[in-house]
Amino acid sequence: MDFGLTDEQRAFQATARAFAREEMMPYAREWDEREIFPVEALRKAAALGFGGIYVREDVGGSGLTRLDAVLIFEELAQGCTSTAAYISIHNMAAWMIDAFGSPETRGKYLPKLCAMEYFASYCLTEPDSGSDAASLKTRAVRNGDHYVLNGTKAFISGGGVADVYVVMARTGEAGPRGISALVVEKNTPGLSFGAQEKKLGWKTQPTAMVMFEDCRVPVSNRIGEEGQGFRIAMAGLDGGRLNIGACSIGGAQFCLDRTVAYMRERRQFGSRLADFQALQFRVADYVTELEAARLLLYRAAVAVGAGEPGATSLAAQAKRLATDTGFAVVNGCLQLHGGYGYLRDHPIERVLRDVRVHQILEGTNEIMRMIVSRRIFGN
Description:
By secondary structure, this protein is α+β, with helices and mostly antiparallel strands. It is 51% helix and 15% strand. The chain has 11 helices and 10 strands. The protein has a 4-stranded mixed β-sheet with strand order 1-4-5-8. A 4-stranded antiparallel β-sheet has the order 2-3-7-6, with no helix packed on it. Helix 7 runs antiparallel to helix 8 (277-306). The relative contact order is 0.11. The mean pLDDT is 97.
């Protein structure tokens, strides 16, 4: 059991940290206020290898591990939590194509996805199936060498902007065994998009409904075999949960660092905030809780990467703890800033708005508890 990072891990962690501070942090407020999808910054991130972090190298990926990815996303989230979270979703979709796609599909899409010449979206959630994802209604009916796709996906990050949509659709019976995964290109006839959603946070990434009306998709664009789509989707989410947990920890660490600096300067009742023991103890708890969440996240990342039997449960534990802890720490940092924390002149409120959704997406934290409970009780 070695808690130290390798020299290589420290190197790309430092690269991600420098990129976040130079190419994301100075612009994050403008991106948020103007709801800008920062294409140029995303492609600069891809040039450093962050567009296909754990995609294999033969198609342009970086070939890194799940733990490596967690280290990278924690750093990127300190630059802009919302943008880092989109990079996570893009990586999840790209990995699904890499891990389960045919050689032809991998060669067709992944070089452009790894370079972020193409952007990707993950399409599982529907208006009537959120946590109950296996009840999805979007249907793909085989017609010769195509599937004819009909249905609607909801809350899709990158919706309307992404070039590639990894879509879970029903090709067979009810329940998880009747679901398959398909790659749908943006300009496919029958594919359309709803209006951009107006959200509390995550304003640097577009979010919209994705709609299919007699949308013809080549059978060759299927990922894996018919009926494997739900398993593929869940495998993707194991990694997505790790990354979104890392984004929560990164956002919280950013706020905590700023709060400590603020407390050393801010004076009330003749003393610095940093000199009040009650506030010192509060910050000590935040540091402890963040470190505990970080360590569980690292452990889960190793488990997912190694394909350990309990990896899905560990990923759920880590996601639940990291996102709950991340939000609590950011909220506490806002409180320690007092009225200033509530102003848009300070970044704390922006990070608060961005990390709140992490407790909902990639499986709600209630669903995370269900996954862990099933592992414990076997039901």
